[in-house]
Automatic annotation (TrEMBL):
Residues 28-241 form the Metallo-beta-lactamase domain. InterPro entries: B_lactamase-like_C, Metallo-B-lactamas, RibonucZ/Hydroxyglut_hydro, Sec-metab_biosynth-thioest, WH-like_DNA-bd_sf. It comes from the Bacteria. It comes from Paenibacillus sambharensis. This is MBL fold metallo-hydrolase. The lineage of its organism: Bacteria, Bacillati, Bacillota, Bacilli, Bacillales.
Amino acid sequence: MSGNGLAVHLCDNGWIRVKVPLPFSLRYVNSYLLPEAEGWTLIDPGLHTPEAAALWTEVLSGLSITAGQIKRIVLTHQHPDHYGLAGWFQERSGAPACMSLPAHRYALRLWGEDRSFDQELTEQFRQHGMPETLLEQIASHLAGFVERVSPQPEVTYIEEGMSMQFGGRSWELLHTPGHASGHICFYDRTGLEMICGDAVLPGITPNISLVPGEHPDPLQQFLDSLNRLSRFDVVMAYPGHREPFANFRGRTQDLITHHEQRLHHIEGLLQEPVTGYQLCERLFGARTMGSAHNLRFAMSETLAHLEHLVHKGRAAKVKAGYGLFKYVSAVV
Ligand SMILES: [Zn+2]
């Protein structure tokens, strides 16, 4: 398999994990190929870049898998690094692409015909004090994603309460929003394994973004999802990034603690009214410099924490003139 052998890992349970490259600091997304009696199920195929498509072509040929043997594409959520190649695979295999309705609706807002989302997001950032030059960079960055998710798949809807059969097992579908609208985890109650997408990640904290037109308190959704997931018995979890991991319950608790500490820290920075952008700079600083991608996620994450504090009565959101908003501690 030439140089790309490094991208292919055999999991202990017999699945094939393919590390599909990403042009971001995350570096790669995990795609999983699950053997079926006939053919394969593909979980989260990756972002559509020329490098990723070339890798897949080489990987499939190295594994002697033809496109037609992909029988089903399963998507934990609609983020482009997971969803981007779904249409590409569907075009070659004719396989159904399964994802939740809220996830698909969000994908259509981002990359459907209307594409109103980009303007709504930049407007949101403007109201929270981001300078115009950076807004322009964000807008052109967002537009660049359309080709990375094209062609887009026809979607077969799946939802909480259903079970799906794949990889020779029965999977319970768990609606676990917070990181993404409509995010689904898949739980095998017999084998005690969880396909967790980006709902729980080892080593890194999943991004939580406030985005226009979606849930007003995504951090609360995320904490609710983590609390729920922490009650499942899991011996091995298969995440969207980094390595499969065993300490699932402990990791959910760590993530909850991380956000509690983060909220406490942010609350302490609101003694004087600040815009979301001022706080974002303070929290993330140099890490967002020169990267519209990182800046977008840093800004959306900052706003998610601020709005959560407002929903909890721990901060107030005030009008500051010129269409701007600022946040201030509720106990000043
Ligand atoms: Zn994601």
